[in-house]
Amino acid sequence: MASKKILIIDDEEDLRRLLKAFLVQLNYEVYTASTLAEGLELISEEKPDIIFLDNNLPDGLGWEKIDIIQQYVPNSRINLISAFKFIPDSIRDNHVVRLIEKPISFAMLRSYLD
């Protein structure tokens, strides 16, 4: 059975590296991007099963691209990472999108992989 694909879209290089190292140890195939543009390109190419999407990126807000991401990969689980409390109700009420508030712990991260 092929391992699940995970895409991490976050402009914090240290966080991307830590998450990737953690997820690779759990036998996931992990891709990373530092901008929305790079992330959207990888989404269309790799069709990840799980996406960790930072909300505040250099080229836009992650939550503003969730509709587009869901069109590319309708069966993917999207985990929106944010240090900010303000997220529109349409995102909070979306049953496919889960909100992860920073700081992130590895114990908590495991629950976002299902």
Descriptive account of the structure:
It contains five helices and seven strands. The mean pLDDT is 88. The chain starts with a strand and ends with a helix. Strands 2-1-3-6-7 form a five-stranded parallel sheet, sandwiched between helices. The chain has a two-stranded antiparallel sheet with strand order 4-5. The chain is globular. The longest helix has 13 residues, at 13-25. Strand 6, helix 4 and strand 7 form a beta-alpha-beta unit. The chain has one domain: Response regulator (Rossmann fold, 3-Layer(aba) Sandwich), CATH 3.40.50.2300. The protein is of the alpha/beta class. Helices cover 35% and strands 26% of the residues.
List the SSEs and their pairings.
Blueprint: E1 5-9, H1 13-25, E2 29-33, H2 36-46, E3 50-54, E4 56-57, E5 60-61, H3 66-72, E6 77-82, H4 89-92, E7 97-101, H5 106-110
Parallel strand pairs: 1-2, 1-3, 3-6, 6-7
Antiparallel strand pairs: 4-5
Main attributes?
two-stranded antiparallel ribbon; alpha/beta; 5 helices; Rossmann fold; globular; 114 residues; 26% strand
Quick summary:
Helices cover 35% and strands 26% of the residues.
Oligomer: single chain
Structural class: alpha/beta
How far apart are the first and last residues' alpha carbons, in Å?
16 Å
Strand content: 25-35%
Helical amount: 25-40%
Compute the number of strand runs: 7
CATH domain class: Alpha Beta
- How many distinct folded domains? 1
Q: Spans with pLDDT under 50 lasting ≥5 residues?
A: none
Q: Mind telling me which CATH architecture this is?
A: 3-Layer(aba) Sandwich
Helices, by number, come to: 5
Instruction: Give the topology string: H per helix, E per strand.
Output: EHEHEEEHEHEH
Largest sheet: 5 strands, parallel
Silhouette: globular
Rounded Rg? 13 Å
Average predicted confidence as pLDDT: 88
